[in-house]
Amino acid sequence: MQYDKELFETMSIPKAVAKNSIPAIISMMVVFIYNIADTFFIGQTGDELQVAAITLSMPVFSLFIAAGVLLGIGGTSMISRALGEKRVEYAKHVSSFAFYASIIIGLVLMVTFWVFMPTLLNIIGVSADTVDYTRDYLTYLAIGAPFIILSQTFSNIIRSEGKSTLAMKGMMLGTITNIILDPILILGFDMGVSGAAIATVIGNMFGAAFFIFYLVSGKSILSVKPKDFMIKNGVLVGVLAIGIPASLNNLMLSVANIFLNNFLMSYGDIQLAAMGVAIRANLIMIFVQIGLGQGIQPLVGYSYGAKHFDRLRGIIKFSIITAVILGSILTAIYWVFADAIVQSFIDSPVVIDYGTTMLRALIISGPIVGVMFIFINVLQGLGKVIPSLILSISRHGLVFIPLLYILDYTVGLNGIIYTQPVTDILTVIISIILYTVVSRGLVEQKAMR
């Protein structure tokens, strides 16, 4: 089976970006639905404590996603560059490594979370009122670790051979399963947060099964055969070199959420639940931009590997313009309908009031935040380890956490609310500086051809 050579080499840039990015954006919308489905149906119970428990569990779920991102983004970068260099066998070694590593890491995390559950609950900042709900949710969620990681890994890697639509279908299968099961288990069987976790796990099982079936069907140039598994010849180091900075973005998101939850807990469970709703509502804007970035990453990696530098620059320029336009449109929509958006999650007047204020604060950086996600994926696609690392840990770590302390101390609750948009603006500036430095190297490489 051949990869989509036309997409990578001869298709017009707008069409190529659209073909690979639209399914990636839809896939991210699927991830968005995954993130909000539990909150939405738990919100229908009217129990703010169960909503707060889901919010507290977000960092743990993000850890599973981070493991999948590590292998998926690292693998995608390696495979797309290898295909650009016409090294198909090497691409097979990378995909096989990512497959078995996903299973192993998932099993390790599952057992670790079960063994250290009491310590984990203390770290994420549960209260006496939310501890039982949070424990129930995480106990079941841990079962799904291998499936969540495997699904996340290959929803990225399959795009490296130009099969973005197929990746979207796999994600949609898992999401539809989750949506069907959520109301049945949460409301029909009155299982609450336990039902939400079980639905999430089963949904990811279906998604992982879809990708496994495709990979063993003979329709992919990628491999999951044990004989192709390899960690030498730069496979392990190459995947980790790009995957670790990429996954750190998710890991730092977990850390940032833990810090944020602990700060909000000092103001009360209502404020914590409201921020949880606002963050989930804002995810649609963030995930659209992430999807656009992830969609162009294989195009960037292939063009770089094939030394098609003019096409590479055209892809980056077009993507930045698209990101700003999309961000501006979504920001306007969110600002006008903020109250209705928050109200769709939970029927609690006080949570809706706080949540609307928080959502409008979060979207201030909306028109430009996509630029950062474009540059994150460009740097990953180019295999630029250090710049990618710096940018990945800035948004939720180097910039966010110090600002959280400063703004909470100086402004209080409003300071906490505005920490993320201020962080986003600063991180966009950092991303532009980093890409400017890297682009000078691309000019030198083009001149040496």
Q: What level of helicity do the residues show?
A: over 70%
Q: What's the story with the biggest beta sheet?
A: none
Round the Cα radius of gyration to an integer and report it.
Answer: 21 Å
Shape: globular
Order of helices and strands: HHHHHHHHHHHHHHHHHH
Query: With helices defined by DSSP (H or I, 4 residues minimum), what is the helix count?
Result: 18
Distance between the termini: 31 Å
> How many strands?
0
Q: Write down the domain tally.
A: 1
Structural class, from secondary structure content?
mainly alpha
Overall average residue pLDDT: 87
**Which percent band covers the strand fraction?**
under 5%
Low-confidence stretches: none
Break the fold down into its secondary structure elements and pairings.
Blueprint: H1 5-9, H2 13-43, H3 48-84, H4 88-115, H5 117-124, H6 131-141, H7 145-157, H8 164-188, H9 192-216, H10 235-265, H11 269-305, H12 309-343, H13 349-362, H14 366-382, H15 385-398, H16 400-411, H17 413-417, H18 419-448
Verbal overview:
With 449 residues, the chain is mainly α. It has one domain (5-448). Helix content is 84%, strand content 0%. It has helices spanning 5-9, 13-43, 48-84, 88-115, 117-124, 131-141, 145-157, 164-188, 192-216, 235-265, 269-305, 309-343, 349-362, 366-382, 385-398, 400-411, 413-417, 419-448. Helix 3 packs across helix 7 (145-157) and helix 15 runs antiparallel to helix 18 (419-448). The chain is globular, with a radius of gyration of 21 Å. The model has no long low-confidence stretch (mean pLDDT 87). It is found in: Cell membrane.
